[in-house]
Every structure is written in structure tokens, then in C-alpha cells.
Amino acid sequence: MNIKNRIGKTPLIRAKELEEMLGISKIFLKLEGNNPSGHKIDRLSIMLIKDALAVSKRTICLSGHTELAKSIASVSQFFDIQCVFIFRRNSKLINSKSFNKENIKKIEYDTNKKQDCLEYSKKISKEKGWYNANQGFENGMVNITALSTIVDEINQQLKEPISTVFTQTSLGYGISGLHLGFRKLWMEEKIKNIPNLYSCTTDYGNIIYEEYKKNNLEIYKEYLENKPVSKYNRMVMTSDSSMLKNVLDAIYDTGGRVTGVRDEELEKFVIEVKKLEKIKMTIHNGYSIAGFMKEAKAGNLTNGNHVIILNDGRINLEIEEITDKDIDPNKIVDLLDEWLMEYTDPKEEIVDAVQHAMKTGHILAAYQNNDITGLTVIVNLGFENFIPKYHLGYIATKKGGKGIATQLLNKAIEITDGNLSLHVDRDNKRAIKVYEKMGFKQSYIRMIHK
Questions:
Q1: How many Cβ atoms are within 10 Å of 342's Cβ, its own excluded?
Q2: Fewest beta carbons within 10 Å, which of 158, 177, 263, 404?
Q3: Residues 6+ positions from 220 with CB-CB distance below 8 Å
Q4: In this structure, are residues 256 and 196 in contact, taking their beta carbons and an 8 Å threshold?
Q5: What is the per-residue pLDDT across 312-359, written as a single tens digit (0 to 9) for each?
Q6: SS3 of residue 446 by DSSP
Q7: Distance CA 17, CA 79 (A)
Q8: What pLDDT was estimated at residue 156?
Q9: DSSP classification of residue 223
Q10: Structure confidence at residue 368 as a pLDDT band (50, 70, 90)
Q11: Does the N-terminal peptide bond of residue 221 adopt cis geometry, omega within 30 degrees of 0?
């Protein structure tokens, strides 16, 4: 399956339990952990690889001590490109399965500092004519553009005005990308207002927050004392960032803020939300949810549409093929009829499609925490070359399951090897655009005699 169809298009789920606890609605979680390698950074990886190939460089190099390195190691397997990763002396990562691939070369640099590996990877890239894939000034625009793609997805999934967006900040590419994406939608008149952007990071050791505090004396006085580096904040600490001005411009332009989070707050809020919403994520990637909780509990948020981007947040979403031995076909028909709402067909038509799919096609079910949250009916038309062999008859999800349909569609493309057609109302421009991004092309107008 084309890796491009698997990156992005991640679920956006309604956090109803969190809404009830806080007394705020509506809250949505953008689960970037449902990307192929389990992290938002996949969006950047594929664009860096494409950029390298565009300038005829088939070897890319970067420090191996980052989330980006793990992602590139995974994504690069689908491209004709070589990777060189620089590791510090005696690093355990050098023997990790993530980097044990044929297209990957590992160099152990004689240092015990990660920063030295970063500088050496830049140096050797220049000497060898390799593509420098490290996050920094050289790839600033690529970084921002890649991470701006999440905005189009959120806008398509939510289809309502967005009040706030919370994201984790280290160097600041994420929030700069969000600002670029929303500003573009506003200029194209696809949205009326740009949401308040919240940059969430450690309360100590991040240059962006340090600069923000200087313009907010009340916050500055509160955090004057020094705090040690911890297992959590070391992931977002940085003493320099070429995105500093971009981030502060984004914050002030949208009426947002930079929210500093202490370790104890981070741990408490992430554990609380994971339990409430039954999602998986690491604590050190939870600054956005902790920042949201902190602002909400301080009374700084009102009802609206609040989106929290979770770098590696994911749900237990399993896509499985089912038969009449797994579930009563009548239940499938009832669920499709209920979930399709005003777009449903007469029940006898749904029954006919389900029966045919059970015999010669495929029926896919999305399970979230053992509960069916989506269904896809794929009918075998019996042709090999005349028209696509398979036709996607129905795809529907339980209310609130935004992003699950995309996961089902990805699986449908995979299981049919892309030999698949579907119908869409020609006036449904939004759906057409989504399907085109998934690899479908408009071929002809289907006319039905009545």
C-alpha cells in the first residue's frame, strides 16, 4: 500500500468524558499516534524524503537520537533512498530494531553528547553532499509546511468553527505550521476566524516560554527559580530556536498563549485523561493535554470547539474482516441504516449489498475498545479489467468517530489492492476532495435509468 495514504488522516475523537468532568464542550482529541510509526513526525519524514529526492539527493543524514530519526527509518523503507544516522558512543539505540534495515547505515561518533552528534551529522552531510534532514534552520520551511497539513484535516473532520488548538512545543515548528495552515484557510475564505493557538511546553528550559514570560510579568515572577532537567522536560527543552519569532507572532496574532507545565502537572493530567478517554500515549508527549487541563481548570476556557493535538496519542482501533459467523448480517444492516442517517438507502438495498459482500466481497468492521464503531461493505462486481473488480457500497461510522472512516478506507484500498471504485454525489465537493487525496480519481459520470 502507498505509504502516502497511511500518513496523516488520523482520527479526531470527541472527548465526552473530559467534557463532563470539566463542564466544557466540545473537546476533540487529534490522535497523531495513529500514523504508521506512531507519531505526528511522520508528516515531516515523508516531506523531507520527497524534498531530498526532488533535489536529486538519495542519501539523507541526521542524528539518531530523535523521534524524527525513528520515523524516517520507518518511512524510508518505501522509497529508493539511503539513510545515515549518527549515534553517540555506546548508545543503546544503535542496536535498536528501528535502525536495523538494509538501507540504513549507522555511525557511532566518539562523543557522549547528543548535540555533538547533531553537529557532526550536519558537517558530514555538507562534506559528502548528503541531504541534511535534521530539524533546524536549513529545513525550516519544509518542517512548517509538513506540519501545516494537519490543519486541513481538522477543518474537514470538524466542519465547524474552531475555538482553540493546543499543541506541544519544543523548537516551535508545530505551532508555526498550524498558524500557516489556518492563515491559508482564512485567506482562501474557507474559515471566518483563526482559532486561538496555545503552545504548551515545560515551565523551565524552553527558550520560547522564557521569551513569552518576559512580556508577561505575572508569569515571569512565578517561575524565577531554577528547576532541574527531568525525564519529561528534556524532550522539549531548547536554548535556541529559529522559530522563536514565528511562534510568538502566531500566539499574539491569534490571541493564544504559551502555557508552561510543571512535571507534576504533566504526569497528573496525562494519566487522568488517558484513563477517562481510554487512549494510549506517553507522558512526555502530553504537554498539549496538560496545558489544556491547566487552562481549563484556571477558568480560561469557555464552551466552543477545542482541539488538542496529541503527538503520539492513539486509540485501540482494530480493523477486521468479518463474516456472518462473527455478527448477524441483520445487525450490520441496522447499524449502517442508523449511521448513514439521511444518506441511507432503502433497507432492501442495504440487505442486498451486505449479502453479496458476505459471499464474494468483504465486510470490514472497526473495533474501538471491543465496540464496533464503523463498517465498510465492499462488493465484488466480478470484473477483472473492464471496470474495477470491487465497489465500495457503504462506509459509515458511529457518531463522534471522526477519522475512523479514513482508517476503514485505507484498509479497503489495501485489501482490494486498489482495484476499487466508489460513488459520491457530484455536489459533495468536500467528500470528492477527501477521496482524491486518498488516491481516487473522477473517471466518468454514472447515470442510472429510472
A1: 4
A2: 158
A3: 213, 214
A4: yes
A5: 999 877 788 988 888 899 999 999 999 988 888 899 999 999 999 999
A6: coil
A7: 42
A8: 86
A9: T
A10: confident
A11: no
Q: What percent of the residues of the chain are helix, what percent strand, and what percent coil, each to the nearest 5?
A: 45, 20, 35
- From residue 143, give the alpha-carbon distance in Å to each of 2, 42, 94, 139, 377: 22, 11, 25, 6, 38
Are 173 and 144 in contact, with CB atoms under 8 Å apart? yes
The three cell numbers locating residue 330: 441483520
Decide: 96 and 37 in contact? Cβ < 8 Å.
Answer: no
Nearest to 180 by CA among 345, 188, 358: 188
Amino acid at 209: Y
As to burial, measured by CB atoms within 10 angstroms (0-12 exposed, 13-18 middle, 19+ buried), residue 447 is exposed
Q: Look at strands 27-31 and 12-14 and give their pairing.
A: antiparallel
pLDDT tens profile 196-229: 999 999 998 888 998 898 876 554 444 444 556 7
Do the beta carbons of residue 147 and residue 42 sit within 8 Å? no
Q: What pLDDT band is residue 106 in, cutting at 50, 70 and 90? A: very high
416 DSSP 8-state letter: T
- pLDDT bracket for residue 257 (50, 70, 90): very high
One-letter amino acid at 425 equals D
pLDDT tens for each residue of 145-173: 999 999 999 998 888 999 999 999 998 99
Q: What's the pLDDT at 7? A: 85
How many whole angstroms separate alpha carbon 223 and alpha carbon 286? 21
> Element (H or E) spanning 439, and its range?
none
Dig out the grid coordinates for 74 from the structure: 520507518
CB atoms within 10 A of CB 351: 17
Give CA–CA dist 365/408, Å, rounded: 8
Residue type, 401: G
User: What cell was used for 20?
Assistant: 463532563
Cell 504533566 sits on residue: 266
Q: Assess contact for 13 and 371: CB atoms under 8 A.
A: no
DSSP string, 85-140: EEEETT-GGGG-GGG-STTEEEEEES-S-HHHHHHHHHHHHHHHT-EE-SSSGGGH
- 324, three cell numbers: 456472518
Q: Which grid coordinates are listed for 119?
A: 553537529
User: How far, in Å, CA of 154 to CA of 177, rounded?
Assistant: 13
User: What one-letter code names the amino acid at 86?
Assistant: I
